[in-house]
Design brief:
Shape: elongated
CATH superfamily of the largest domain: Nucleoside Triphosphate Pyrophosphohydrolase
Distance between the termini: 39 Å
Number of helices: 3
Largest sheet: 5 strands, mixed
Order of helices and strands: EEEEEEEHEEEEHH
Structural class: alpha+beta
Radius of gyration: 19 Å
Low-confidence stretches: none
Number of strands: 11
Strand content: over 45%
CATH class of the largest domain: Alpha Beta
Helix content: 10-25%
Protein backbone atom coordinates (compact mmCIF):
# COMPACT_ATOMS: atom_id res chain seq x y z
CA UNK A 1 0.00 0.00 0.00
CA UNK A 2 1.30 3.44 -0.95
CA UNK A 3 0.99 6.07 1.78
CA UNK A 4 3.00 8.73 -0.03
CA UNK A 5 1.26 12.07 -0.54
CA UNK A 6 1.85 14.89 -2.98
CA UNK A 7 2.94 18.27 -1.75
CA UNK A 8 0.25 20.98 -1.68
CA UNK A 9 0.92 24.30 -3.41
CA UNK A 10 -0.37 27.09 -1.19
CA UNK A 11 0.88 29.99 -3.33
CA UNK A 12 2.80 30.29 -6.53
CA UNK A 13 4.35 33.24 -8.36
CA UNK A 14 6.61 33.70 -11.36
CA UNK A 15 9.84 35.33 -10.14
CA UNK A 16 11.66 35.28 -13.48
CA UNK A 17 9.69 35.40 -16.70
CA UNK A 18 12.06 35.69 -19.64
CA UNK A 19 11.70 33.89 -22.99
CA UNK A 20 14.97 32.08 -22.26
CA UNK A 21 14.40 31.33 -18.57
CA UNK A 22 11.33 31.04 -16.36
CA UNK A 23 11.43 30.39 -12.63
CA UNK A 24 8.43 29.91 -10.36
CA UNK A 25 8.49 30.28 -6.57
CA UNK A 26 6.06 28.03 -4.73
CA UNK A 27 4.96 28.06 -1.13
CA UNK A 28 4.28 24.43 -0.35
CA UNK A 29 2.88 22.37 2.47
CA UNK A 30 4.63 19.04 2.95
CA UNK A 31 2.66 15.93 3.99
CA UNK A 32 4.23 16.26 7.47
CA UNK A 33 2.66 19.73 7.83
CA UNK A 34 5.86 21.76 7.38
CA UNK A 35 5.60 24.82 5.14
CA UNK A 36 8.36 25.81 2.73
CA UNK A 37 7.88 29.27 1.27
CA UNK A 38 10.77 29.35 -1.19
CA UNK A 39 10.71 26.24 -3.34
CA UNK A 40 11.95 27.27 -6.80
CA UNK A 41 10.94 25.46 -9.99
CA UNK A 42 12.47 25.99 -13.45
CA UNK A 43 9.76 26.05 -16.12
CA UNK A 44 11.46 24.42 -19.11
CA UNK A 45 10.18 23.37 -22.53
CA UNK A 46 10.07 19.72 -23.50
CA UNK A 47 13.02 18.31 -25.44
CA UNK A 48 13.02 16.04 -28.48
CA UNK A 49 16.15 13.85 -28.57
CA UNK A 50 17.22 11.48 -31.33
CA UNK A 51 19.43 8.41 -31.24
CA UNK A 52 20.43 8.26 -34.93
CA UNK A 53 22.04 5.11 -36.36
CA UNK A 54 23.57 4.92 -39.82
CA UNK A 55 23.35 1.86 -42.06
CA UNK A 56 27.02 1.24 -41.09
CA UNK A 57 25.97 0.91 -37.40
CA UNK A 58 27.40 4.27 -36.32
CA UNK A 59 25.68 6.63 -33.90
CA UNK A 60 25.60 10.26 -34.95
CA UNK A 61 26.62 12.62 -32.15
CA UNK A 62 27.01 16.38 -32.07
CA UNK A 63 29.93 18.05 -30.32
CA UNK A 64 29.16 21.52 -29.07
CA UNK A 65 30.16 24.10 -26.50
CA UNK A 66 28.03 24.36 -23.36
CA UNK A 67 28.48 27.77 -21.82
CA UNK A 68 27.20 27.04 -18.28
CA UNK A 69 30.22 24.79 -17.60
CA UNK A 70 32.54 26.22 -20.29
CA UNK A 71 33.28 22.87 -21.95
CA UNK A 72 32.63 20.96 -25.19
CA UNK A 73 30.42 17.85 -25.02
CA UNK A 74 29.42 14.92 -27.22
CA UNK A 75 25.64 14.64 -27.16
CA UNK A 76 22.82 13.17 -29.15
CA UNK A 77 20.99 15.64 -31.42
CA UNK A 78 18.22 17.32 -29.45
CA UNK A 79 16.30 20.52 -29.04
CA UNK A 80 13.45 22.27 -27.29
CA UNK A 81 10.04 22.45 -28.88
CA UNK A 82 6.61 23.94 -28.28
CA UNK A 83 3.97 21.16 -28.27
CA UNK A 84 1.30 23.67 -29.31
CA UNK A 85 3.21 24.20 -32.58
CA UNK A 86 4.66 20.76 -33.40
CA UNK A 87 4.68 17.21 -32.10
CA UNK A 88 7.68 15.68 -30.37
CA UNK A 89 8.22 13.44 -33.40
CA UNK A 90 8.22 16.35 -35.87
CA UNK A 91 10.57 18.31 -33.58
CA UNK A 92 12.96 15.35 -33.30
CA UNK A 93 13.19 14.87 -37.07
CA UNK A 94 13.62 18.63 -37.53
CA UNK A 95 16.40 18.81 -34.92
CA UNK A 96 18.21 15.84 -36.46
CA UNK A 97 18.06 17.47 -39.90
CA UNK A 98 19.08 20.94 -38.68
CA UNK A 99 21.94 19.84 -36.42
CA UNK A 100 23.42 17.09 -38.58
CA UNK A 101 22.05 17.24 -42.14
CA UNK A 102 20.76 13.64 -41.76
CA UNK A 103 17.24 12.18 -42.00
CA UNK A 104 15.98 8.70 -41.03
CA UNK A 105 14.36 5.97 -43.08
CA UNK A 106 12.88 4.40 -39.92
CA UNK A 107 11.78 6.35 -36.88
CA UNK A 108 10.04 5.47 -33.61
CA UNK A 109 9.62 6.71 -30.08
CA UNK A 110 11.42 4.60 -27.50
CA UNK A 111 10.80 6.48 -24.29
CA UNK A 112 10.09 9.55 -22.24
CA UNK A 113 12.68 10.64 -19.69
CA UNK A 114 12.72 13.34 -17.02
CA UNK A 115 15.87 15.38 -16.71
CA UNK A 116 15.62 16.75 -13.16
CA UNK A 117 12.05 16.34 -11.85
CA UNK A 118 12.88 17.77 -8.43
CA UNK A 119 13.37 21.26 -9.91
CA UNK A 120 12.53 21.19 -13.65
CA UNK A 121 9.20 20.70 -15.42
CA UNK A 122 10.32 19.29 -18.77
CA UNK A 123 10.25 15.86 -20.36
CA UNK A 124 12.75 14.42 -22.84
CA UNK A 125 11.01 12.58 -25.68
CA UNK A 126 13.46 10.02 -27.04
CA UNK A 127 13.35 8.64 -30.58
CA UNK A 128 15.35 5.98 -32.39
CA UNK A 129 16.22 6.95 -35.98
CA UNK A 130 17.59 4.09 -38.06
CA UNK A 131 19.22 3.93 -41.47
CA UNK A 132 19.84 7.66 -41.42
CA UNK A 133 21.46 9.25 -44.42
CA UNK A 134 22.97 12.63 -45.14
CA UNK A 135 20.70 14.78 -47.29
CA UNK A 136 22.19 18.23 -46.88
CA UNK A 137 24.13 20.67 -44.77
CA UNK A 138 23.45 21.74 -41.21
CA UNK A 139 20.97 24.57 -40.61
CA UNK A 140 22.17 25.92 -37.28
CA UNK A 141 20.71 28.56 -34.98
CA UNK A 142 22.76 31.69 -34.24
CA UNK A 143 23.98 30.21 -30.92
CA UNK A 144 24.96 26.85 -32.41
CA UNK A 145 28.33 25.75 -33.70
CA UNK A 146 28.15 21.99 -34.02
CA UNK A 147 30.60 19.33 -35.17
CA UNK A 148 28.98 16.07 -36.34
CA UNK A 149 30.79 12.99 -34.97
CA UNK A 150 30.06 9.39 -35.99
CA UNK A 151 30.96 6.69 -33.46
CA UNK A 152 30.52 2.94 -34.05
CA UNK A 153 27.81 1.42 -31.84
CA UNK A 154 30.36 -1.08 -30.47
CA UNK A 155 32.57 1.80 -29.20
CA UNK A 156 29.92 3.80 -27.34
CA UNK A 157 30.18 2.05 -23.96
CA UNK A 158 33.96 2.59 -23.96
CA UNK A 159 33.45 6.30 -24.74
CA UNK A 160 31.09 6.55 -21.75
CA UNK A 161 33.54 4.69 -19.47
CA UNK A 162 36.39 6.95 -20.58
CA UNK A 163 34.34 10.09 -19.90
CA UNK A 164 34.23 11.18 -23.54
CA UNK A 165 30.42 10.98 -23.39
CA UNK A 166 29.34 12.48 -20.08
CA UNK A 167 26.00 14.27 -20.42
CA UNK A 168 23.37 12.48 -18.31
CA UNK A 169 20.48 12.76 -20.79
CA UNK A 170 22.59 11.40 -23.62
CA UNK A 171 23.88 8.52 -21.49
CA UNK A 172 20.37 7.60 -20.32
CA UNK A 173 19.11 7.74 -23.90
CA UNK A 174 22.00 5.56 -25.10
CA UNK A 175 21.40 2.89 -22.47
CA UNK A 176 17.70 2.83 -23.27
CA UNK A 177 18.36 2.88 -27.01
CA UNK A 178 21.11 0.25 -26.97
CA UNK A 179 18.45 -2.25 -25.89
CA UNK A 180 16.68 -1.68 -29.21
CA UNK A 181 19.86 -1.48 -31.28
CA UNK A 182 21.53 -4.65 -29.97
CA UNK A 183 18.36 -6.75 -30.15
CA UNK A 184 18.41 -6.52 -33.97
Amino acid sequence: MNNLQKWKILKSKMVLDNPWCQVRQDEIKLPNGKIIDDYFVSIKPDVAMVLPITINREIIFVRQYRHAVGEFFLELPAGNFDPTKESAEVAAIRELREETGYIPQEFRKIGTLYDKPSKDTNKIHLFLAENVSKVGEQELDITEEIEVVLIPVKSVLDKISQGEISVVGTIAALFLGLKFITSQ
